[in-house]
Amino acid sequence: QEGPFGRRGRAVSALAAALAEFPGWSLSRHCAMAVARPAAKRQTLGASTDKALSGLGGKAKTSAQRIEEATVQKNQVIMSDIQCWDAEALFRQYDSERTQLLSRGSLVDLLREIGLDKKLGDSFTASARLAFDAHSADSHFLGKAEFKQLYYHISHWHPDLLPRETSLKITLMSARDLPSTDSNGKSDPFCTVVCCHVHPDGKIETKGWSKSSTKVVEKTLAPWWGEDFTDKYGYVEGDSLLLQLYDWDQGDKSELIARAILPGTEFHRPGGFHATLPMTCMVSDAPRGLVPLLSLRVVVKGLPVPAPRLQIKIHSAVGLPPIDLTGKNDCTCTFQIVGKSYSRSTTKTCFKTCDPVWNENFDGKYRYEDGDNLVFEVRTNGGKAGKNELLGRCVLTNNEFSSLGGWHGDMPLIDVARAMIPNPDTPNGRHAPKLKVSAWLQDMMPDDDEAFVMRAQGIVNAATALLSETTPLPPPALSQEE
Questions:
Q1: Alpha-carbon radius of gyration of the chain
Q2: Residue 56 scores a pLDDT above 60
Q3: How far apart are CA 107 and CA 158, in angstroms?
Q4: How far apart (Å, rounded) are the C-alpha atoms in residues 248 and 217?
Q5: Using one digit for the tens of pLDDT, what is the confidence trace for 318-360?
Q6: Cα–Cα distance between 435 and 120 in angstroms, integer?
Q7: pTM for the model
Q8: How many angstroms separate the Cα of 214 from the Cα of each of 71, 180, 184, 298, 355?
Q9: How far apart (Å, rounded) are the C-alpha atoms in residues 165 and 158?
Q10: What is the C-alpha to C-alpha distance for residues 364 and 310, in angstroms, rounded to an integer?
């Protein structure tokens, strides 16, 4: 029969009727559009078209529109940020020719990488083919928007496969010693971090899609953020991180304050990077020699995180020379592995005392290597405007703490400030401060039984030495209980 839509309309109607017999089947939008093209010339269907004309501004619906309306169910979904980052990273990785299109073979390789082939087993090949055909508009390539639809479906069906875990966890904690850029003597700083690749000639190639930014902290030269970020799937081993500090100005372009590059070798290691990073000041009229400092932590996920091998405990100091006019000091103690500035750690401040007690534990931040020495410095805390004056320094050599049991005791402080000030409380009339510390290697500490034997043997040796100085009699024998 000759109808208003001709043979194509009858074919589509028959197809729709056949699909109606199978409730689990539906006609996709692209398939419906491909089969049923709009007629070149619309025909009025009389009273039966009144319903079709409603809501279309007086234009009749095409057969494709009616089939789509009857067979296609449209759902609007919202993908999370991490899903969008992961989908775009996968698409970017397999779009080798930068055409913003994925071929059928590229999609199959992509699905294999995320582990879908292990999930589906023998049905993987057919499923990958059907997934491509169902989401591709032309059955030849897959666009980014179409791939995101497929990504959402896979992540919904297999949440253990997608989204993938990011490579880096980046924590931007704080900054200090920033130059002032505003008329009030302050700045409104925020920090950005982005993955980059540094070429041998010094050229920096950034990966803009991996960029993250902290909030703005207004009117300060020592901002605190404490914000966590990821690499947004932009990091690969060998990359570095470009960190930049900006001053935010409303309605104007943000001004670059400082910048630094953290090489991948500093954080792609067990324990990652957790230290203060010196930055290059980019403000032309900043005070000469000003070095902004950024405190951050970067951890590569998936790397083993054993306990730090080197352990330090800074107990106390005695006999420090007085610096303040009150005859007391505000004291801090700093520990560092010699030649490794990123291993630096500082105690809290003890106020108004020449005999501070800290009792704080530290580790080598995974920077310790066999043969390293340790340096300790006791300084005054002069505050933001004051100078941290050295009160004393000492070095603990490797052979003193790397043996079984480590080091536990006092060390005399050298380079003592104002050492020539008379001190009648000491035998030579000079200040002789000491620092009490403990340092040991985890793998060189004995277990409980060995530690007991070592302590007991140490007591016996000390008693033997004392007796040998006072009397020729041999040391008394000890019973098992003693």
A1: 36
A2: no
A3: 17
A4: 9
A5: 988 888 777 888 999 999 999 998 999 999 999 999 999 999 9
A6: 65
A7: 0.71
A8: 47, 19, 23, 15, 41
A9: 14
A10: 5
